[in-house]
Automatic annotation (TrEMBL):
One of its GO terms (cellular component) is cytosol. Its EC number is 3.2.1.-, 3.2.1.86. The keyword Transferase does not apply. GO terms for biological process: carbohydrate catabolic process. It comes from Buttiauxella brennerae ATCC 51605. Signal peptide: none annotated. It is an enzyme of class 3 (hydrolase). This is 6-phospho-beta-glucosidase. Keywords: Glycosidase, Hydrolase. GO terms for molecular function: 6-phospho-beta-glucosidase activity. Belongs to the glycosyl hydrolase 1 family. SUPFAM superfamilies: (Trans)glycosidases. The lineage of its organism: Bacteria, Pseudomonadati, Pseudomonadota, Gammaproteobacteria, Enterobacterales. Pfam families: Glyco_hydro_1.
């Protein structure tokens, strides 16, 4: 018996973005406000408060963002102006040899309020043009339907996903997209990082935490409605687009028990389950046995409509995709240990064996191999790495070059671990780097936290020419793709 570390023929190499972080043009061609259009940025705000909005929007902040006279800067309304640069940007992706491009459709471009009966033709036309540009370069679109972009009106007028009506609004949106783009898009994802509702319910399910006495109930009721909506969308996609593939997408942070004490192992298992519960339901088609206790201990009683369980059972996803940026350790007594400051929404304990990024994220390439094996062992479905990347401050040299060797090293180490997972027998069919071009950060709303192979001349307050230029990593990733992952040399 032999095993191979080679990537399969037709492996989908590419990059990943989200409409709310790069498109801009927030009020162009009939687009409505989304939940992400509410995030502000102030260069004078202390760094430790940059995530405050991401983790919990207030009613006052939402009302102010709806005020046309607000003078605050909302970075995600500007993005990097992909809306007007998409042909240029896609040509640059093609220059790297992209096989695929993971992107999202802004719900508010198609249904500006979310509850309309008819779609916005200008929004539909824009994505027609984007898909045509991708396909003309031989790049396969991989489309997320909901990537932190639900219409803000569904939050203010319907109280978000805990309201059953939102299921119908989403299915109408999804069906409209499947019908319109049935000849252009084969791969779809229903919800981005669906398990992150446990950390940021506002942007995930449209629930404002402030003064909410039923927060846990609303989180998981909203998640249940997303499960049903995902299954119904999967059913519709398979009917409308023969041969289509629909995936779920979770945020996956590899977790290790901090010590070999049984209590740490139990705490780690429980935290992992809270995250994997979401993909368990979508991939297996049912609520696993452990969720009964998990939900009871949170004081959650799900309200289901007759037929919900059958819908989940009949229409599970075809593949499992995930984001992977870091790992963390878990302790039964975290208050006695040093926290991992940069692990953002997930917290955790600092691992002394790992280096960290400039934003404090613990870099763990070997954790990616472990994650791939865990997920494949659990689901036995094809896997897709939807996000993986390194945010860093890039320096433009006097000659215009950007030597981001740190990004190359990060990418090389993670690809090497993907090769190991392939040799382990994991069915992995694609990888998209987050993000191939500099975009506004989801959590901190900065563009100076750069991930791209393509540099965008723009600062955190939106100033700059938005000129695109190539970093050293652009040429390195091009070589990786042309060799199908075999040439990882400098």
């Amino acid at each position: 018996m032999t095993f191979s570390k080679s990537f399969p023929e037709g492996f989908l190499w590419g990059g990943a973005t989200a409409a709310n972080q790069l498109e801009g043009a927030w009020n162009v061609d009939g687009k409505g406000l989304s939940v992400s259009d509410v995030y502000t940025f102030d260069i004078n705000t202390p760094k430790e408060r940059w995530l405050d909005q991401w983790l919990g929007m207030t009613h006052a902040q939402v009302r102010e963002a709806q005020d046309p006279n607000s003078t605050k800067y909302y970075p995600k309304r500007k993005g990097n102006d992909f809306y007007h640069h998409f042909r240029e940007d896609i040509a640059l992706f093609a220059g790297m040899g992209f096989k695929c491009f993971r992107m999202s459709i802004a719900w508010t471009r198609i249904f500006p309020r979310g509850d309309e009966s008819e779609p916005n033709e200008a929004g539909l036309k824009f994505y027609d043009e984007v898909f045509d540009a991708l396909l003309s370069h031989g790049i396969e679109p991989i489309v997320s339907l909901s990537h932190y972009e639900m219409p803000l009106d569904l939050v203010t007028d319907y109280d978000g996903w805990p309201n059953r009506q939102v299921v119908d609004f989403y299915v109408r949106f999804a069906t409209t997209c499947f019908t319109r783009y049935r000849k252009k898009v084969k791969y779809w994802m229903t919800f981005n990082e669906i398990n992150c509702v446990k950390h940021h319910p506002y942007v995930s399910v449209g629930v404002i935490e402030e003064d909410n006495p039923h927060l846990e109930q609303d989180k998981y009721q909203g998640a249940h409605h997303q499960f049903v909506a995902s299954a119904l969308a999967t059913k519709a996609c398979h009917a409308i687009i023969p041969g289509s593939q629909v995936g779920c997408m979770i945020s996956y942070q590899m977790l290790y028990p901090h010590t070999c004490h049984p209590d740490d192992l139990q705490a780690c298992e429980e935290m992992q389950r809270v995250s994997l519960f979401f993909s368990d339901v979508q991939a297996h088609g049912y609520y696993p046995a452990y969720t009964e206790r998990m939900l009871a201990e949170k004081g959650v009683t799900l309200q289901k409509v007759v037929g919900d369980d059958e819908i989940l059972r009949l229409h599970p996803v075809d593949f499992v995709s995930f984001s992977y940026y870091m790992s963390s350790t878990v302790s039964a007594n975290p208050e006695k240990l040093e926290g991992a400051e940069g692990n953002l929404i997930t917290g955790g304990i600092r691992n002394p064996h790992l280096p960290t990024s400039q934003w404090g994220w613990q870099i763990d390439p070997k954790g990616l191999r472990l994650a791939l094996n865990q997920l494949y062992d659990r689901y036995q479905k094809p896997l897709f790495i939807a996000e993986n990347g390194l945010g860093a401050v890039d320096t433009v040299n006097p000659d215009g070059s950007i030597n981001d060797d740190y990004r190359i090293d990060y990418l090389r180490q993670h690809i090497e671990q993907m090769q190991e997972a392939l040799a382990d027998g994991v069915d992995l069919f694609g990888y998209t780097w987050w993000g191939p071009i500099d975009v506004v950060s989801a959590g901190t709303a900065q563009i100076s936290k750069r991930y791209g192979f393509i540099y965008v001349d723009q600062d955190d307050m939106g100033n700059g020419s938005q000129k695109r230029s190539l970093k050293k990593s652009y040429h390195w990733y091009k070589k990786v793709i042309s060799s199908n992952g075999q040439d990882l040399t400098d």
